[in-house]
């Protein structure tokens, strides 16, 4: 009887050892899967964020040229140490930008089974839409009938109330008065304006405030050169596109937005603002109504 008990005990001891070994193997496998799976997840998340950043930044330059897009995308990839991951870059103003990244991620536990790494692929797309709502507009506007040739010099006459009779308008976004007008010209209107809003035109003598506002913007943009315009240049102004259909005298209706670049300072005897209209992708929203396309674009990340 005693011998039989010993045999049974030895058998149970052996079974426990086998069960423990199996459990340990299963636990190690689970740990290995968690480690490799976690590493793949973190790597893919990082790569996707990098692709998103590259697409959004590259989209800002679509209105310029392919070289500008490539330069920006390369800078973003370099800042994330992912230059070698670029597998495709496509861009055009019509279709937007597509950035595809591919990377082989090294594994740890899976190397026991001869699997050294796994490839991960991500892509991001971004496009441009005309701005339908934005903050920061200056109290200047152009009639939607004006044909814009980007890069050509335009002279915007400083003539209060001209919005009713001509193609250029001085607007009272912050309310009437030369002081409000000057401050808004210098800093931009801090409230959101959108297509369909009706705003008043400015009255009174605003030649002096216009000169001070324009010169302030130029003086606070020291890094601008003939060949280089920083994206945050204070010379780049968001102006309103409007018409006068169905509104009372002294008012205009916003139909879109445009960007105007200040080319020259104004003197005491100048009666116009000299600059160029430009295609530019900046901050803004689509808005509820379709905007009149005058080269002011917002960037959207596409699914």
Automatic annotation (TrEMBL):
Pfam families: Tad (PF13400). It comes from Virgibacillus sediminis. This is Pilus assembly protein TadG-related protein. The chain crosses the membrane at residues 16-35. Residues 14-60 form the Putative Flp pilus-assembly TadG-like N-terminal domain. It comes from the Bacteria. InterPro entries: Tad_N. Keywords: Membrane, Transmembrane, Transmembrane helix.
């Amino acid at each position: 009887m005693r011998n039989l008990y010993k045999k049974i005990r030895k058998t149970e001891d052996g079974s426990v050892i086998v069960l423990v070994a199996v459990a340990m193997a299963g636990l190690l496998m689970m740990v290995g899967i968690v480690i490799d799976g976690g590493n793949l997840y973190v790597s893919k998340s990082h790569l996707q964020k990098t692709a998103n950043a590259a697409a959004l930044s590259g989209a800002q330059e679509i209105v310029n040229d392919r070289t500008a897009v490539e330069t920006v995308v390369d800078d973003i990839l370099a800042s994330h140490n992912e230059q070698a991951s670029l597998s495709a870059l496509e861009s055009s103003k019509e279709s937007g930008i597509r950035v595809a990244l591919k990377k082989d991620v090294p594994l740890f536990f899976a190397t026991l089974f001869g699997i050294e790494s796994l490839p991960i692929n991500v892509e991001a797309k971004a496009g441009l839409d005309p701005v339908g709502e934005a903050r920061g507009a200056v109290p200047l506007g152009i009639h939607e009938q004006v044909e814009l040739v980007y890069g050509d010099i335009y002279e915007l006459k400083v003539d209060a109330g001209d919005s009713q009779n001509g193609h250029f308008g001085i607007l009272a976004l912050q309310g009437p008065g030369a002081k409000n007008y000057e401050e808004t010209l210098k800093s931009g209107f801090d409230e959101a304006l959108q297509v369909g809003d009706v705003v008043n035109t400015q009255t009174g003598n605003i030649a002096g405030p216009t000169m001070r506002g324009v010169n302030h913007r130029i003086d606070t943009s020291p890094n601008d050169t003939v060949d280089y315009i920083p994206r945050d240049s204070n010379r780049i102004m968001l102006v309103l596109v409007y018409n006068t259909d169905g509104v009372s005298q002294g008012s205009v209706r916003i139909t879109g937005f445009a960007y105007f670049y200040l080319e020259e300072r104004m003197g005491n005897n100048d009666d116009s603002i000299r600059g160029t209209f430009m295609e530019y992708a900046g901050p803004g929203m689509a808005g509820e109504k379709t905007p009149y396309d005058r080269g002011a674009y917002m960037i959207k990340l596409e699914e």
